[in-house]
Amino acid sequence: MPEEKFEPKIVAFFCNWCTYMAADSAGTSRMQYVPNARVVRLMCSGRIDPQFVLDAFAKGADGVLIGGCHPGDCHYQEGNYKTLRRITLLKRVLKEMGIEEDRFRLEWISAAEADRLRTTVNDMVEKVRALGPLRLSAKEVIPEEVAVS
Amino acid sequence: MSEGYLYFPGCSLKGTGRAYEESLLTLFRLLDLKLEELDDWNCCGATSYMSIDEGAAFALSARNLALAQKSGKNQIVVPCAACYLVLKKTQDYVERYPEIRDHVTASLRSVKLPMAEPLAIRHPLEVLYNDIGVGRIRSKVVRKWAGGPIACYYGCQAVRPYYEVDKPVDPTRMEELLEAAGIPSVPYSLKTKCCGGSLTGTIHEVGVRLNAILLKEAVRKGAKAIVTLCPLCQFNLDAYQSEVCKLTNQDLRMPVFFFTQLLGWALGGDPRELGVHRFISDAASAKQWLSEAKEVAAHV
Amino acid sequence: MFETNGTARIGVYVCHCGTNIAGTVDVKSLAEYAAGLPGVVVSREYKYMCSDPGQELINSDVREHKLNRIVVASCSPLLHEHTFRTAAEKSGLNPYYAHMVNIREHDSWVHQGEKEAATEKAKDLVRAAVRRIRYHKPLEKGYVPIDPNVLIVGGGIAGIHAALTMANAGKHVYLVEREPTIGGHMAKFDKTFPTLDCAACILTPKMTSVKAHPNITLWTLSEVTNVEGFVGNYEVTVTRHPRYVHEDLCAGCLQCIEACVYKQPRFDDEFNVGLGKRKPVYIPFPQAVPQVVLIDPETCIQFKKGTCKKTCVEACGDRQAIDFEQKDEVKKIKVGTVILATGFQTVAAERVPYYRYGVYPNVYTSLEVERLINASGPTGGEVVLRDGTKPKSVGIIHCVGSRDEYTNKWCSRVCCMYSLKLAHLIKEHTHAEVFNFYIDMRTPGKGFEEFYHRLLKEGVHFIRGRVAEVTDWADDASEEGKLVLRVEDTMSAMVRRIPVDMVVLSMGLEPHADAPEVRRLFNISCGGEGFFTERHPKLAPVSTFTDGIFLAGCCQGPKDIPDTVAQAGAAASEAMALIDAGSVEIEPNTAYVVEEACSGCRTCIVLCPFSAISFVQEKKKAAVNAALCKGCGTCVAGCPSGSLRQNLFEDEQIFEEIEGVLNYA
Amino acid sequence: MSDKPKVAFYWCASCGGCEETVVDLEEKILDVVAAVDIVFWPVALDFKRKDVEAMPDGAITATFLNGAIRTTEQEEMAHLLRKKSQLLIAFGACSQLGGIPGLANLWDRRRVMTAVYREAPSTVNPQGTAPQAKHAHDGKQSVTLPTLFDTVKTLDQTVEVDYYVPGCPPTPKILLQAVQTLLSGKLPEKGAVLAPDTALCEECPRKDTRPEKLTIKEWKRPHEILIDPEKCLLAQGLLCLGSATRGGCEAMCVKGNMPCTGCFGPTSRVRDFGAKSLSALASLVDSNDEAEIGKILAQIPDPVGTLYRYSLPASPLRRKKPEVI
User: Fold this and answer.
1) Within its chain, how far is the Cα of C17 from the centroid?
2) Total domain count for chain D?
3) Assuming Cys at both sites, which of C129, C265, C336, C643 could form a disulfide with C232, CB separation 3.0 to 4.6 Å?
């Protein structure tokens, strides 16, 4: 494996009203954080289809971060509760599929919590970096002898 | 509370603060609270240690905590304000700063001790206030106080920066407990000011000056005695009174009690077992008040 | 399957935003990179894309290069999405063929000094947008009508001014106030800085005209308990709490108060912040609006024991205004716009224990002193201590509960000036020595600095330093019986002890304790400190991120009366602009059903909190009511057969974005 | 030989159920035989691989290949048949999505072998023998066996596929329609799934009994309750995947009082069957409290095995992340 430093790729799905705004205000107040996250903006975390998460992992993301409004604060009243329900089950699936917990996070970050946004991204990138790249499929090698253990 | 508390005396309570230990043990006995002295305890790491080699101080203090954990009890009572602060600080900093944690863990490993899980470090004042309560104290009072009003003095370390013992500004628990024991107090605004601390040993005149401020204000407020919860404060305020009188050319002499002595006395403890013979400056009036023991029914 | 819309001819525009972006992102190489992306016909970088020449650039390229898609890499879409959609529209494209990439807030500003990484990130984001926009489709703008009625929450000077402005313009206003009278904090003040004109004299006429105005429905002792709907069409529930007196029947003769079985007032009077006393039946203050008494069930014997002689009822006679049976009354109203003017609260002095408020009787809060100075106050305008004596020396401590790690970090903006005002008035009333203890003197306002100088001349003392504590510890005879302020005088670099008779704490301003509930109710956001957040700090200072809801006064942040009134006027005209436009454009990002694909499983129906999705029995399929749909997309993500879709957030668009940022071929 | 269209059937990693479908055509099979020549059908007729190799490329009009691809030999056959056929049809869930054998992607070759040749309760194998690729027979000629892959593949992850016939197994009706469509000459768009593109609810006899606002507080399993034969199974708390599953089976299982397990796979608008059905089902959970949501969802045992029963290899993740790379 090459010695160059591994830079995790994080796909971040942020809801327009809370977490995306938090990221905006982090910018306005010039908070500095690691450049590894790529934000995909959705109106509500409730729009996040579990397919998006799996697609991101399958297409090369080392981690996926979901940001929504705090429970009770959803701009659309209860979209984030639906998100919570879906993500709860999705986490079990990902676990069974061998994807480490630190690679997938759901965080409630309000528009006021720019600093929380900063620390969350930093923390996640650090943890994912420690895990190394996500390698989903290994190359198929046909062994000389079929091993049984 | 049947399982009782561990007890960390620290150097003072075995030396200048003997009266504190004696009265504490007596008082806890009167309240059927079990105190079990921590086996093989060592210096808490306070004062000189802390200011010269923090690392060593934390390690020392962490050893005590590790021993405490070994004993299986989950609460340790620490009467000396300095010990109390250092033990709390250690527990806190080890949690908060990895580098300190690593250093301390290493030192402990060298003596084959594990790093202790956080345990409840408690001061007797707060134990009496929370676990016993003002009400129960009142119900157990058997003696009537004849001495005048007293000034409660908390000093700097018991209530700052940690404030489980009492409010950092204007603490009142000593007053509440003593009032319950029928001992009135004066509103004493300097209750958390510096007592001169170790300055009396280093820059003597400054120490004495600070000391004088406290005694002067106590007298001005009409206090007949000062009550403390810290062996260093008690010693400072008691030991230099003659010097303070010279400095201010005022008669500022008054006994300086440990709150455990007065509570113990009100609950019927034998004055001698409360160490009331150990005063330096104004032993006379202290003895006088405490011997004027009028036995009365509970609920004064 | 959803298809790309013809062949995309994409123009990419990278904005420098001066040096805001160009300082960190290598805009040149970014533009060059974009030029090489599939579908991209033109790729440029420019100083300010939002400027007219910037937009003209788009316009001419569309004509010249037959562009049909526009990608602008600049600031946050929350700031300029509308600008560039309009630009696209102006050049003859469907506005929704324009898409923004946020390389400022999300990139250059947060990765300063990481030019390379920031540029890479920008490339990923632009690539994603270029891939996404190929799947954009033309959309119709949505519009909703605006109900001309307006709800104003809070009857302080902000609410009052906004209400009158709109009512005078012929709009119908519902003014809802929680207290028994309108007037808010301003009604408690004696004079206003720096002009020293009497607060009551300028406020009470406005209060009475609110009551008199045909276009204003005034509900006091009332609270908004539920809000539904959306811009132009809010359905609001207001709960009117009982005052146990029928407003329409009470003539405000106050004879019931006379007649009350309590001969003397004996209960703390809220309006005089506890310095005065009132009876269980009372009117908050002489000029209260409405001029109607109320009964406090906490203290009224009839409510507590049910055995009162009810002399008040006798006194009221045939008017029969008093009604002990009165209950909560629930009102439902429809409004198109809302102005929140819910104001502020002053920090509780107990939170700053070292100033001993509540321990030493002669430590007062600024609001208490306002009442002491006020001619209609508990002492008839006499500034006297609780023992009735006049103070010979007074210390005023600034920034109590402001600019402080332990209470509130922010500057409350008005304390310096009102402290100066109080200093002047106290001196005027008592001729006492007055000391002001300040950290910095902040007098940015018309005539403010001049007022400060006037006080310097008047001989008020100013000590620059944060007071450490207020104590009764007397070091010598001169301090006997006084309150001593211990402070480091940072001008003379020495610690001083200033003995005074009276201490005034200039309390800071903070959001109401229940601001978070209000925020939730109206679905707006607040900053970390709890004040409501405006849509843009400079360009939309009275709007919120929820369309049709505006802010006025201190609920948005501490400010003085002139600023509050100005903001209230602004909020009123913003609301009226909406109303007079008659309808408002809404994002067409609504969900829709692909009918032939829908199996009628009804999973989506329960997912919509706005009941926008219904099950059409005859077709046995789901249908979305675009007017009710808010565009969250929750149902779309939940449709098990992928038969629900969302405009502007189609699955394909999002998949392309994901694979775009990951550079997945 | 006649100039009738030539049809081949072949099976890879499958249970044989798909072959049964052909047999289940009953007398209708005669119509099929009348219409086409069956040139290759190992399960029923004695053809050998070399016969196929002998055919010119594209000689076969259509090959219906069922079963997933999980051995070297299956891969070779897939390539061979692709070469010889004008149309290659992935026939049945295994070949379209990976099917039940695809669940082996939760492990790797070593784990599978160990389970089968060592740990399975029914295994008696004191020498710990395991099938080897090469095996020297009495020292002289050596026998070769296909080797198992670590990762089970769908047919279209192996070779290009023209059409799909879904189902585990496909119903005879679906098969017949498929054959007819292909014979009709009006070929559908390449890559099409030869079944309706709406979810099963559309044709479900219980459709009308589903409440408009259905939420679920407790998930049940079929053996735990007395199933109401009329009422929507989801409404009874059973994990029925019909709303996410392509129709065409005429709700056979549901008619048999069993919830749909999704063998017809997703509609054309869904990329990942498991994720989509997960999203829909989780959304219905009747709670906003994190802990309670967790509790309710915990009543769904083995989410992967349930939601990806037929489609793990076709899902974006394809397999469990290998421990060792």
Assistant:
1) 30
2) 2
3) C336
